[in-house]
Structures are given as structure tokens and as C-alpha cells.
Amino acid sequence: RFVREILKPFPGARVLDIGCGTAELLGFLPREIEYTGYDMSPAYIEAAQARFGDRGTFLCEPVRSGTGDSAPYGEEQYDIALAFGVLHHLDDAEGKQLFASARSALKPTGRVVTIDPAFVPGQSAAARYFVSRDRGRNVRTPEGFAALAAGSFARVDSVHWHGALRIPYDHAVVAAVP
Fold it and tell me: Within a 10 A sphere around the Cβ of 127, how many other Cβ atoms?
């Protein structure tokens, strides 16, 4: 549902997955894309390469900011940068760095999309409980996640997404364009 309704990859799209984990999302993406996934866990990258090695490039590196004249994710430019369940593991400075590095890796017409667990007004007790038990210690409101992108993007939209899981749970989806 996330891929179909939010991400909307198109044939030939260059996709950068920041914090790709084991690249499970790649199983839902069309074959006609060019995929590059970054994660700082060697075990996750190994698993991604074992399962999807023929469908993408996988690199074991953390969120990057670039140094000097170097681009954070190489010289390639991407149509879509995504961070699926990453921001709630990062403090504010790291979250802002993720958006800045994603921005520098995008084509002028590109966009970044993130999704993370969120706290929202009127949230059910069950959803608040499950979200608060997540391993990420920096769960925010949808507006809090969007604020991290504001310094790097001209347009930032955030929405509350409910019902994506079988358990009561709330997500924030942020979409930003240069």
C-alpha cells in the first residue's frame, strides 16, 4: 500500500533507500527501477544482497553528510529518496542531516519520502502503547518529522497515516520536494 499510494515509483526511476535494512521494500518495487540501498548494519546488507543482489546495489554505510566537494551518496542523482522507519531512530540533528544529504542526492525534480511511527492527537490508547514501545527513541508527531525537512526543502507535506498495520498503529508520512 505504501508503494502504491505514497511512493509511486515509475519505470526507470532511480531510487535511493536510506536505511534500507534487509531491503524488504524492494520486493514491492517494480523491476524497472534502479535501486541503491544504504544501511549501517553489515548483517542487513548481507541479507539484502543475498535476497536481492540482482536487483540493486547495497552499501554498508551510515547516514552521510558528504565532505568537502564529495556528494553524500556518490555522484548519482535520484528521482526518489526514501527512509522507511529511520527517522524515529535519529535525534533532531541526525534527522536534519538525513534530509540535507537526501536533498543533495536528488535530481531537481526528485522527492524524498519518509514513514515513521508517530504520536497524534486523539490517538487510541492501544496505538499510543504500541508506538511508544518501538525501539526508536525519537518518535515525533507528523509535524515534528516535517520540521526536520523544512531547512532542506522548499515544500514539505506530512500526513497522519492510520491502519497500515494489523495492530492499532499510527504513522507519519513526510514527502518533500526541492
Answer: 21
How many Å apart are CA 104 and CA 114, to the nearest integer? 16
Looking at residue 73, its pLDDT comes to 72
Residue 149 CB coordination number (10 Å) = 26
In 3D, which of 94, 77, 96, 100 has the Cα closest to residue 14? 77
Residues 71 and 39: their CA atoms lie apart, in Å, by 17
To the nearest 5 percent, what fractions of the chain are helix, strand and coil? 30, 30, 40
Do residues 153 and 102 make contact, with C-beta atoms less than 8 angstroms apart?
no
Regarding beta strands 56-60 and 34-39, do their DSSP bridges make them parallel or antiparallel, or are they unpaired? parallel
Check if the beta carbon of residue 110 is closer than 8 Å to that of residue 77: yes
Element (H, E) at 26: none
Q: How far apart are CA 176 and CA 31, in angstroms?
A: 24
Handedness of CA 38, 43, 46, 47 (dihedral sign): negative
pLDDT averaged per 10 residues, the chain (length 178): 90 95 94 94 96 94 57 80 94 93 93 95 89 89 96 93 75 94
Closest CA to 9 of 151, 85, 111, 155: 111
Backbone angles phi, psi at 170, to 5 degrees: -125, 140
